[in-house]
Structure formats: structure tokens, C-alpha cells
Design a protein that fits this description.
single chain, about 230 residues, mainly beta, 6-stranded antiparallel sheet
Length: about 230
């Protein structure tokens, strides 16, 4: 099955299978692929499946759509083509699956998990209402431009010196992107920028994606941030 891999500054953010005849891309949340960046138009582009061929089409976006560094309005996609939208890259992957049986087993397993979850919910106490927790960052010390408390409502929160960063830190030797926090259901995963290990969590240097827990302390250069949940 064809898919696209969404990347920002070489960091992989998400893999999206192309299961629909038309897959829309843009800044608005009703798109199939949402890119939360002001350089991206609300309805920026779309990927169309025509037979066995996939085609990228720009929707008269302000900053344009590029395939392999060439600006296009409509262009057929080939395996490993790189689509540039704003500052994000979508890598188009269209490979023939080698083991069909494995896919069937995975689908069946997922179905069993969903059925088991539904059965467990049916047996539970219907009077109990589980409130979704909201996650926040509070700036404890250091130089940060903007708010001192950030609600992590976005799928991806970027921390760094870049003007596009959600949490803009200061520091002469810090890179444009120091780390990013990805929201995945009720979990928050913090990952370092590729090749740049300038972030610490609870005093330990961050070298790989790590799940954040309530009360964790994040350090980026001289800036300290407290991660916590609110109900």
C-alpha cells in the first residue's frame, strides 16, 4: 500500500497510508494530512489515485508545492519522491508488499484488540466519566520568547531557536530545532533533533524518543521547563 512519510528537519513525524481516492493536505484540521505551519495554506494540495498511479496537485497555494525541488501544479509521483510543502517534507512510498499474510494477521489482531476494548468498556461502571488530561509546559528559568505556560494541544510542538518554533528558546550555540514533543493519543513523546543532543530530561541527555511523565523537568540550554498534566 502506498503511503507518505511526514518529516520536519529530517525528523520523522508521522506515516500516513494513502487509503482514500483523494488525500487532502493543508493547515486546516479537516484535511487528511494536517501540517500546522503558517507557511502552509488552509487547503494546500491533494494526492489523487488514478488507477495504479498517484498524482500530487497543488490547490493554488500561496507558497506552492515542490516535487524533488521543482515547483509543480500537477505531477505524477514515483517511489521515494520528496514533496516540499512549507517547511515540511512528505516522502512518497509506493512499494509492493512482500508478505500479504502478515498484513492480514496484523489487521485481525487489531480487530481483536478493538473488540476486547469494547467488551471491557461495556462491563465497566457507566457512572464513571474519564476526563481527558491536558498537558502543559511551564517555563521555570532561562530565556524564552512568548508565553511562560504552553498548552500542548498541537500534534507536534517544536522547541528551538527557529522563528517557526512553538517554544522559542535563546542560546548562542543552540540549533534552530532542539527537540519536539509529539502528542499521540494520551501520551506525549519528546524526541531530540537529529544529530543535536542539547536537551535533557530529569538531568539526563535526551538521545532517543522518550515518553514524558507528569512532573518531568526538561532542560534546553539554560532554559528549564516543567511538564505536567491538568484535568
Amino acid at each position: 500500500m502506498a503511503k507518505v512519510i511526514l518529516k520536519f528537519n529530517e525528523a520523522v513525524l508521522e506515516e500516513i497510508p494513502l487509503t482514500k481516492p483523494i488525500t487532502t493536505i493543508g493547515r486546516l484540521t479537516q484535511n487528511d494530512i494536517t501540517i500546522e505551519n503558517m507557511a502552509v495554506s488552509g487547503q494546500h494540495a491533494r494526492i489523487i489515485k488514478e488507477g495504479e498511479q498517484y498524482i500530487i496537485e497543488d490547490l493554488n497555494s500561496l507558497n506552492g508545492t515542490f516535487v524533488n525541488e521543482k515547483k509543480v501544479m500537477k505531477c505524477p509521483l514515483n517511489n521515494n519522491d520528496q514533496i516540499l510543502i512549507g517547511k515540511h517534507i512528505l516522502v512518497f512510498i509506493d512499494e509492493v508488499p512482500q508478505i500479504i499474510e502478515q498484513t492480514i494477521v496484523l489487521d485481525t489482531k487489531k480487530q481483536r484488540e478493538l473488540l476486547a476494548k469494547a467488551a471491557a468498556m461495556a462491563k465497566g461502571d457507566s457512572k464513571k466519566v474519564v476526563k481527558e488530561k491536558e498537558a502543559f509546559l511551564t517555563i521555570i528559568s532561562g530565556s524564552v520568547r512568548g508565553k511562560k505556560e504552553i498548552n500542548l494541544v498541537k500534534k507536534l510542538t517544536v522547541i528551538g531557536k527557529d522563528e517557526e518554533a512553538d517554544v522559542k528558546v535563546k542560546g548562542f550555540f543552540l540549533p534552530k530545532t532542539c527537540c519536539f514533543i509529539k502528542k499521540k493519543e494520551d501520551k506525549y513523546i519528546i524526541s531530540p533533533s537529529p544529530g543535536k543532543h542539547v536537551t535533557k530530561v530529569n538531568g539526563k541527555t535526551l538521545t532517543k524518543p522518550t515518553e514524558l511523565n507528569d512532573g518531568d523537568m526538561i532542560e534546553v540550554g539554560s532554559t528549564k521547563m516543567h511538564f505536567f498534566f491538568k484535568e
